[in-house]
Design a protein that fits this description.
Elements lengths: L1 E3 L8 E4 L18 E7 L5 E5 L5 E5 L3 E3 L20 E3 L2 H10 L18 H7 L2 E7 L2 E8 L2 H14 L10 E6 L5 E6 L6 H8 L6 H20 L12 E3 L5 E3 L6 H6 L12 H6 L4 H16 L11 H9 L12 H10 L10 H18 L1
Parallel strand pairs: 7-10
Antiparallel strand pairs: 1-7, 2-3, 2-6, 3-4, 4-5, 8-9, 9-11, 10-11, 12-13
Helix pairs in contact: 5-8, 5-11, 8-10
Amino acid sequence: MTQVQTSWPQGTECVARYNFKGTSEQDLPFNKGDVLTIVIVTKDPNWYKAKNSAGREGTIPANYVQKREGVKSGGKLSLMPGPTSLCYLTHDIQFLEQHYTKDADGLCTKLIKPKVEEGSVAAQDEFSRDVMVGDYRGTKVAVKCIKHDATAQAFIAEASVMTQLRHDNLVQLLGVIVEENGSLFIVTEYMAKGCLVDYLRSRGRTVLGGDALLNFALDVCEAMEYLEINNFIHRDLAARNVLVSEDNLAKVSDFGLTKEASSTQDTAKLPVKWTSPEALREKKFSTKSDVWSYGILLWEIYSFGRVPYPRIPLKDVVPRVEKGYKMDCPEGCPEVVYNIMKQCWNLDPAARPSFQMLKEWLQHINQGMIKKQ
């Protein structure tokens, strides 16, 4: 597998994967298989200054070369060290898909098709993902394939920002594997207990008490407050896009993946039951549209993973919501939490609370529960 880094040290030897003729006098032409030595990393991380075996120096495209040492044919997943580093990995995706479908070959499992989440229209139609579990220096990582070109291009544009977004309740992006046709794989931290909606459905109220549900609600809210502070809009917040760690910490996933797709796709392909009325009607996405989705997610949490708007045909959801319809309080849900849901579902985006306010309200509820224990 080819690995391209933004931090190869001076003197690193690399091998050319493609022919490069150069487009200016400053460029260093080379042929596939040539050995080059890095002289300096330029201000643009996509280019290096390098020299060939004859000593001639010039700039070379970073994604045309691979590190000479430790490279194996059809090699295994490799990631750059460093918590905030972004690596661009390019390889023969089709070969890897075929290879890892037949043989785990160092991964924790063979490549398998993911389970399609119920009610996840966007996930079904827009993202068509494969998922692998990998091992990086003794640590499990998750690898997702994103095949939607618009989404892939949008993600690449956001990737440099996303690697800088670090929060205990956000699934950490570790790397990006870029395919030449625009599709890509993303490499993230591994979340042992899967997505929240499955976690809730498989355990139910006999296992999960009110404190566990509130903790999930707070975890997600803290992540969304962090995105709010950083002016980052999720656009597809739902229990299916929240993952649960080994120690039951909920982390928001897939932030940034729907940004471009949501602004260009028609409303019929949006996850209608989770999307705010103004986003469906006018494609106006904002932190306040995320707040609407958070209210739906709260309802999912307290209904233990039920699909929102039960017994209402999908085509009738939007007309009813725009007339002021709000879902009933889930069985066993505290009234104070249900009131928060309803405030998230205000038809006027400006009247909805901020995530900072939501966090303060939930923390107050949590403190009250602790005092009663």
